[in-house]
Amino acid sequence: MAAQNNAPLPDGLDIAGYRIVKKIASGGFSIVYLAYDSEGNAVAIKEYLPSALALRQPGELVPVVAKPHLAVFRIGLKCFFEEGRALARIVHPNVVRVLNFFRAHDTVYMVMAYESGHSLQEHIARAAAKGSRPGEQFVRQVFTGVCAGLREVHANKLLHLDLKPANIYLRLDASPLLLDFGAARQTLHSDAPMLAPMYTPGFAAPELSTRGASLGPWTDIYSLGAAMLACMSCSTPQSVEARRAGDKLLEQLDKLVGRYSPELIDLVQACLALDPLARPQSVFAIQKALQAAPAKPLAAPSASVAAKAALQGEARGGWRGLVDRLGAIGRGQG
Ligand SMILES: Nc1ncnc2c1ncn2[C@@H]1O[C@H](COP(=O)(O)OP(=O)(O)O)[C@@H](O)[C@H]1O
Ligand SMILES: [Mg+2]
Known about the structure:
alpha+beta; Phosphorylase Kinase, domain 1; Transferase(Phosphotransferase), domain 1; 6-stranded antiparallel beta sheet; 3-stranded antiparallel beta sheet; 37% helix; disordered C terminus; binds adenosine-5'-diphosphate; binds magnesium ion; Prot_kinase_dom; kinase; transferase
């Protein structure tokens, strides 16, 4: 199935009591619009429109779904609807607020509170373009909020399954917000193989590509580690396949020594364990670790390689010990 470029709904269109202002983003499964409700509040409307299955020509409203794709399109539609329904139960400052969903144009729309800001992905790209990178305090503060949102998601028996900087949105005050639970549909339905989300290499845990492996909070915890690493290294982490062929994680983490505290580096390493049982077992434990002050002040970024190596040897207590400590903190908590 070749992906097609779908025409967005026209600006100014009235739909189910909302007025479309403009398209703000489009991806493989959906188009997101800025719109206003009848009281003039800004909302973001996400339209289910998988480009591999449905085609909408400019000037049309209803997409054309070729007969062979119809059954899969409908399963996806149902899952999108259920994703919205599950998300609508969650009211948390770090999870996007779903306000409504409705059917129109033979598809489904999810209405969310509109948030001004930009994705963490954009933030990282801007930092990289300036030759800098997000600081320790920023990483700790953003991911503490991400953990708070994720705990609420897990408490509602949902998994995110596509956690990555592009799906973490930063409001103007830098408070984070989890977006895009598209992959969560996997936990609701396993009967839609053709719509199985394309997990993002570099952020997807190994169990996502292992037939019969059990998924759980530990699966999101791997992605959390990968997202922190992406932030700290300003690059996309290696995919699981690439790690299995030649793991460069330790090498990458060593480059962060001196710039970030040993505790933070160890935490990232623990989250990125290929063995799910070797990862911190609860998001609560990670949140606690992010909120704890590092034991020693950071070495100056200009420290010599030798000094960095000494710091690393002395201060990095080893990730196994850290996992044990985190396990003790987090046992029995959501
Ligand atoms: N509630 C929202 N408020 C503001 N912008 C949003 C909102 N939801 C999504 N967006 C914008 O749309 C983009 C894509 O949203 P996302 O839910 O990740 O969809 P996709 O499935 O296309 O990745 C986001 O990066 C963000 O720029
Ligand atoms: Mg997304």
